[in-house]
């Protein structure tokens, strides 16, 4: 199966450049201009100036990450499987589905899941799961922030962070390993925006990458909401280029 997928991508132009990367030589984030080198050095400064430099650096890398994501979209199609973790109302689910790949989309918030279902209604290549994804399977409390007009803000619902002034509901949690296995084949692309649950998943993936069958993964990390995780994310960003036969981007904005 792995050989078939690799051959299929080769026929679709898998070695072409897209967003500054190739399948065989993925983009590595390096401070290659004077400004980027300055920002990279300044982010270690204490206080406001260090935080400001980090934000500016991440914004620049974030723009490149969007280009890289679009480059990978150009290489997948019918016969591939992709994962949308934290699908919310389906904006990226529809973008992934437009490639023709089979999209497995996970969204735990019931209000967001209704919107997601409406957004992709009629798309035969989308499978929806009203569940969260984390390092371990089980059941967890999903924290949601109430809106003054009624209902809940669904963008930042989290099984990790407490949304002050909100309420919570118990939701099913599927392990990342099982979410990959449900696809029944190696996953071409993973988009992950799961509000803090990514930390434990990433530690698992980087500790045993061969256990996880995917080609590329783009992750929005939330260390700004958990400053104690900053050192972890910085270390994983440095290690990402060395992961065997897969591309992991931790600068997704």
From TrEMBL:
Pfam families with a match to the protein in the record: Methyltransf_21
The protein's name in its UniProt record: FkbM family methyltransferase
Span of domain Methyltransferase FkbM: 84-237
Region ranges (Disordered): 1-21
Keywords for the protein's UniProt record, in alphabetical order: Methyltransferase, Transferase
Sequence ranges of Basic and acidic residues compositional bias: 1-11
Organism field: Paragemmobacter aquarius
UniProt keyword Disulfide bond present: no
GO terms of molecular function: methyltransferase activity
GO biological process, one term: methylation
